[in-house]
Structure formats: C-alpha cells, structure tokens
Amino acid sequence: MRPELSIIPEPDRSTEARKPLTAKQRAELALAQGGRCGCGCGGKLDHAGEGTVDEHLNPLGLTGTNDLANRSIWRKPCSDAKTYGTDLPAIAKAKRIEARETGTRRERKPIPQRPDPWPKGRKLASRPFQTRAANDDRRDA
Ligand SMILES: [Zn+2]
Question: What is the distance in A from the centroid of ligand 1 to the CA of 91?
C-alpha cells in the first residue's frame, strides 16, 4: 500500500524524443567504429545493402538519451534483434512495473459467468418409483 504523500521525490520517468543523427554524425560514428557493426558481431556495415541503424545503446524508453555517447551504428539484423528481442520487452516490463507502483494499472473486467446449473445442496426432484404395470395402466386410461 502506497502512502498518500511521500517525502521521496517521484523519479523522472519522462523520455526524450527520438532525434535522428545527421548524415555527418552517422558517417563519423561509422568511421570511429572502423566500418564494423557497433554490437560487436564484427560484421561490416553495409549501408546500401542490408541497411544500418543508429542504435540507442540505452533505449530512449529506458532513460536513454540522444547523446552521441549513447549512439552507435549497427547492422539492421543486429539492431532488430536488440530492439525487438531485448529493448521492447524491457520497456513493456518497465511500464508494467510503473503502472503497478503508481497505481495506474487498468482495472480488469470480470469474465461474465452463467448461473451454476448444479448449485451445491441442490435437491434432485424425486419421483415415485413406478412399476411397469402402473405405466401400462396410465397408458390405457
Ligand atoms: Zn552486429
């Protein structure tokens, strides 16, 4: 249970807007990396072929900034693996934790239930046992 008022300041959870690198910045970064992928796979950057991405090493969604120190040129396949395999799940988890911590989690709607056809303690309607002869009599009448 969270107290109504806290002396602990709320953490800054704002995210910086995405800012693409200029062509010059991209070229300088790629040069500084020796034309190799920034992820460490050793693959050559192929800007025209498979494509390259200027990655945020610490994603914007997780306190990352647009600083050049947080940027690196990655091959597209390596970038996709990081973005979709690591970053987006981590950002989603951070959002879930934040929603839990701040109490802004969406209420769940209960699943509608149909009435129980076999409630506990239900008495079966008892019918007197009827002999074959009694049935025959009823039919004849
Ligand atoms: Zn790579």
Answer: 21
Residue 13 CA to ligand 1 centre (angstroms): 29
Query: What predicted TM-score, i.e. pTM, was given to this entire model?
Result: 0.64
**pLDDT per position as a tens digit, 86-96:** 999 999 999 99
C-alpha 124 to ligand 1 mean position (Å): 71
DSSP letters for 11-66:
P----PPP-PPPHHHHHHHHHHTTTB-TTSS-PBP-TTTT-EEEEESS-GGGT---
Distance in Å, CA 32 to ligand 1 centroid: 15
pLDDT in tens, 106-137: 788 899 988 888 888 877 777 666 667 666 76
| Domains of the chain and CATH, by start | 23-102 (3.40.1800)
